[in-house]
Amino acid sequence: MRSLVFLIALFCCLSATAQRPRDTIFSAKLNADRTFTGSLPLSYGQTKDKKYPLLLLLDGEYLFDVFDGNFAFGNYWDDLPEVIIVGIDQNKENQREADCMMNQEGLPEETGAAFFEFIGAELLPALEKQYRLSPFKIIAGHNITAGFMNLFLYKEDPLFSGYISMGAEFGEQMMERIPVMLKTAKKPIFYYHSSADGDLKHNLKGIQTLDGNIKTILNSNINYRYDEFKGASHYSLVAYSVPNAIYHIFSSYQPISKTEFDEKLVKLESGYVDYLVKKYETINKAYGAKMAIRITDFKAVEAAILKNKAYAEFEKLAALSRKAYPKSMLSAYHMGMFYEKTGDFKKALKAYQAGFSLDAIGDLTKDFIVEKVEEMKQGASAKKAAAAEPEPEPTPTETTEPAKEEQPATEKP
């Protein structure tokens, strides 16, 4: 009998060509082999300390490609993080029904209970042991697997932080029990579910009931979205749902967009650097990641400072960029901007010159620094010349006649 250590073979042959090998492992809980499709991020072999979110797919044989493609596209534009994807095949005859068996109360029983224990007690621990997983884990399913995956919410400390439910078929009492668990959640939970106007009728009623119940919850830890797609079927709703779901779950991860800049950042009266710090604290807390601040987000804050003439914040921005990119010229540039905009061209010149010995970053190159140095030299010279030039004597605007000598008054004869 094969052991779970064979999970290693699931990923070890992955390459930068984005191959997706399939492998089987033996589960003692199920007393059977289960087949998986797996994918590691392209950067996985290039890093030693970076940890990645896990996306676990039920119905993996047909959900894998649609999720993998959307994540690849989003990551290319830095809108989505790299994730480790594992898809469980359930395409054997009656496999899905056996895996998702529940009793009348909507709790797992028999083969469903064994499958539930397999995921929580065998699969996830094995993946965590072999791979660098962050605490942030997502589970997704369609139809009966979408309903079944909600059972992981019933744990006091849920195993997953994100839930993607598409066209779900719920067991009895689940529409009431799920909101209760979400209401008491003590850590961030991202919950997405969807339906279509062409969905299965016996599913649609439960989905809409659950939506109404969740919307009554007041819990700041819950990040919730429901989509009902017009003109879609029970099957095509998956193609509509996946991008909406993953962009909802990773909305805080995305770089500062034009909309965020126009509607939030630039409208602040102050605290532009604090806004950037808080944004990345939220990313790290929500997704269990240690992510460096993007250069584009530094540029967005720089633009907000300039637009609002809050030049004093450049000094604080310089301290933050020095911490984020200590070997780059970014901090020297920000200090140069601080002195330049506050009128001290001499100190601005020294700050920009300090960037010569540091690494270029983004569009900040040594040629650009040369231009700034020349600007500061000219600015300093002009300021020095203006200070040395004597003030001109005032020029009278009118000619004045000499004062007439007063004559003593004489009496008339």
UniProtKB/TrEMBL annotation:
Key word Signal present: yes
Top-level taxon: Bacteria
Basic and acidic residues: bias regions: 401-413
Transmembrane spans: none
Family matches, as InterPro entries: AB_hydrolase_fold, Esterase-like, TPR-like_helical_dom_sf, TPR_rpt
The TPR repeat ranges on this chain: 329-362
Xref: Pfam families: Esterase
Region entry Disordered, spans: 380-413
Keyword Signal among record annotations: yes
Keywords: Signal, TPR repeat
Span of the signal peptide: 1-18
Protein name: Histidine kinase
Organism annotation: Flavobacterium aurantiibacter
Lineage: Bacteria, Pseudomonadati, Bacteroidota, Flavobacteriia, Flavobacteriales
